[in-house]
Sequence to fold (566 residues):
Amino acid sequence: MLSEQELIRRESLQKLIDYGINPYPAQEFNRSHFSSEIKENFNEGEKVIIAGRLLRRKIQGKASFGVIQDSKGKIQVYFNRDTICPDENKDQYNTVFKKWLDLGDFLGIEGVVFKTMVGEITVEVQKFHLLSKALKPLPMPKVDKDGNIHDAFNDPELRYRRRYVDLVVNEQVKDTFVKRSKIMSSMRNFLNAKGYLEVETPILQPIPGGAAARPFITHHNSLDIPLYLRIANELYLKRLIVGGFEGVFEFAKDFRNEGMDRTHNPEFTQMEIYVAYKDYKWMMNFTEEMLETICLEVLGTTEVSIGDNKVNFKRPFKRISMLDAIKEHTGHDLSSMNESQIRAVCKELGVEVNETMGKGKLIDEIFGEKCESSYIQPTFITDYPVEMSPLCKKHRDNPELTERFELMVNGKELANAYSELNDPIDQKERFEEQVKLAEKGDDEAMFIDHDFVRALEYGMPPTSGMGIGIDRLVMFLCNQPSIQEVLFFPQMKPESKSASKKLELTENEQIIYDIISKRKLMDLVELKDLCGLSNKQWDKGIKSLGKQNITKVVKTDTGLTVEYIQ
RNA sequence: GAUUCGUUAGCUCAGCUGGUAGAGCACAUCCCUUUUAAGGAUGGGGUCCUGGGUUCGAACCCCAGACGAAUCACCA
Fold:
């Protein structure tokens, strides 16, 4: 069902066509300037050709002001009837411009730059060309002198579902995505400059490996096998290190079939990098250098506001081992405790645990509950328990720990890195432990990837690998509280199809219709009784019939009568 | 998954104790030649999220459902 405004626009469209104007012309439109160039280099009297969307229009008789928005911003345009129509025929202004154009249409404009009396840089239109007609009205937010936004288009659901509209009317949304793109190219440039190779590895994987997560599953018809959408690309990148590359990285879309909230989308982007002959200590230096460089390139500063916090990405970042972090925050030194002692600590601290958790998992729980959220400034948490990290080398000094770090920022994990496990026999055993977990019902335990073990058997040099969540990094650097704000098209439930046409009468309407269409005219109360419907059903039915112009309720001296309209 | 709040015109939102739905912007008609969110006059526009129920009467009360947001839980 079209709204009145949409119907009017379709009529205007037809009138334009009848008048001989093609509302969707094919040919290229050559511009001389972007809006920003005109404003940055004001040059009174300069002839310019611009193009964009008509976003505001104020008609005041023979003159009108408008605003054209192009990809670089907005600029005011001035339409004067006698400039546009120097001859007798004033159609171009009076009819084409005033009556048949609408807000949202794309126009090409040839004109001259000047400043209005109020001092705003403006293009006086000499000729305008319709480049594309818009049939739906855009929301029209306005900003007043005090910076208040009126009629803001700010319903998150509508904004995400119609991101194209969001981008047109909310400039700051565009800024976020421009920044996202800059962050990614800055990171890519940094990695390329270090001499590492950007690669692409399979998204459809027969064995989803490299992380603990539930995968999406699909099916390949001609092979007749299940395939999984990748949850990580770690195992493939490490195969490439086996193959002899010095360093490889990939910006990877990963997919995890888990809950959605403001920090989790089913598909998200991770950058993973693996560098031969390095360890996790080297990777810490590398990571902080990369992040500092990106901040300076994209923001011009290492200082970032994230919510109420000020975060500084200036090197060096704080480093602390997980056990030291726990000691610092709880006063408990777990380093020499056994499992039952740690379990007692959990109880004392009020950390919820269950019987299936081993020593490592207990330590991880304590850290997650008591420490994680307090690391606002970038901090490397190092040396995780071995059970939590089946792809990571055991610590050189302590076999219960691994050479692993996570980078915490604003109380959240941003990056995760290892000295990669390259002992094939150890790797196979760790996989087998995961299988035992799976048999116990852990639906996130890893599958055994025999080919990956085989690759390690051919020999992988010592390697350090790191994964960094791009969406989360963008959230931090753009100070956005939700992942949906940094994804163009966040996953959403499908729109309901309740808009399905209701041309036919409902059951209740049909009952009323059957009676009144034979009698043509009758008393309302009598009709209602004859129908035998409940009050609500009657009320809805008769109102709906009235709206569809099938019946009409007429008030008379004696009461109400219902009339059937042919 | 739990709790709370919300869903009314194209957009942003009012709508009291239940009594036939309102405003601003946008739209339409007319007037207006340099305006700064908003010039003037007039007018049109509604599945009050959906379905039931209570009631003489429901946008409003009750039940069920859909969708969304926030918080929490779970999860990287």
Notes: Residues 171-193 of chain A form the longest helix (23 residues). The two ends of chain A are 23 Å apart (CA to CA). Confidence is low (pLDDT under 50) at residues 497-504 of chain A.
